[in-house]
Automatic annotation (TrEMBL):
This is Uncharacterized protein. Belongs to the phosphoglycerate mutase family. Substrate binds at R90, H91, G92, E93, T94, T95, W96, N97, R141. GO terms for cellular component: cytosol. It comes from the Eukaryota. Coiled coil: none annotated. CDD domains: HP_PGM_like. The active site is at H91, E166.
Amino acid sequence: MDALRYSLMAKIHAHRFCFLVIRLKFSSVALPNPNSMAPCAVSSNQPISSNEHKLVSLVASEAQFLIETPDCVLVKNGIPAGVAEIIIVRHGETTWNASGRIQGQLESDLNEVGLKQAVAAAERLGKELKPTAIYSSDLKRAYETAKMIAKKCDCPEVIVIPELKERHVGSLQGLFWSDSEEKECDAFRAFFSSQNDLEIPGGGESFDQLCQRSVAVFEQIALKHKGERVIVVTHGGVLRAIYMALTREPSAGKIMNGSVNVLHLTNNKWEFKAWNDYSHLNEVGFLQRGFNGDSLQV
């Protein structure tokens, strides 16, 4: 554990990214404030319920955080035999993201900014160690992003997994956030409810259902690819669910369109190596637009 230390490498700019290494066991932990420059590590021995145990069966008992430099994030010279490295990318911005319209599992095209975000992510990942496979949600915004990445990474195909799709948010789908509470009050309240097993009216998923689906598909991918690197292109809701399920944190913070996140599974223990890395977007000048429509991740 000597390697777990605090290193403050971020520039004092609000738009700069930071990397988190999160070593996980069953615990309740507090993430550093992303706007704070002070390192933070908090762990506790609070008991977990049987439902929580089922939901995060692979999460291990305490957490420590490490701010890292970009060169430390991805394995450079091959993945160790017992490690599955999953690079998770959120799709590029869509027309509905930009206009504040709720997508859920409805289709929406990448807009001009989203296409450039996808290209930036592809350019970055194309310079790294080649992935064994690239997976994508079956929704077009994710699949189009994944195809651009596959081309740059010289991967012949994108493997579609429907379980990677965005959360179904019931009768909220297709509405604008600005008047969704007025038009679908019950669904709006269910979406924001702290009762995680509450399904959203209109055929929507509960947050627990989303977490269970997300954890299951990432376990399946990781166990299939030990000693390998894979790329998964998915959605903000899925990213939020996998992060909150594995860390037991109440929030995942903002998750940029086109951001890169790195997750390892080693000896049945999950470890986030990077979270919401959007340095490649800053380099191409699309950082500010990346947050549009992002706050609710659907």
